[in-house]
Amino acid sequence: MAEPLIAKTEDMIPQSPWPLWVSDGFDSYGEALFQKHCLWKTFHKTGRVGRPKEPTFVPDPRLRYVQAVKIRDRYRHVIGIKPRVVFGRAKKSEITIWCLERQNLNFRQENRRFARKTIAFSKSIRGMENQLAFYQGYFIFIRLHWCLRISWNQPGPKKWQRLTPAMAAGISDHPWTLKEFLCYKIPLN
Known about the structure:
2 domains, 3-stranded mixed beta sheet, 7 strands, single chain, alpha+beta
């Protein structure tokens, strides 16, 4: 699952300058990045007796990947996060995972299929993908966010107007209703 995720993400983001990839301690992301961005070097025989060495693979020097490894106490509670640079170089100020952790918390709180220790689960990958697509649409077009707001210049006690991410990005001019979201016709070319 890591390879298609990385391929999709790289299609959407600019490659200059190369992005800093940050993930948790799960090694599959590092392996997928290495396979996608590796160079190989062959070391030939240089006057010495014996056969040449096998070709070795090295990561592209522009590749930057950091793992944010959670440090836990004996009760498995997270007591800290230690960054581990896997490929390239990264400043400590660049390494943040708060937005990923916030998104994971939103998924777990608002979607029972992502909650820990629950009986709500998907019986198939297709069902999980459909439910995730629905939640993403709800999160972007319907749900008003506290941190996305503009000053409300109308008379009255209300000082701020909350926005959806679609309104903040200029895609929509109002928060959608559930009926409007479900009945929207997607144009096919």
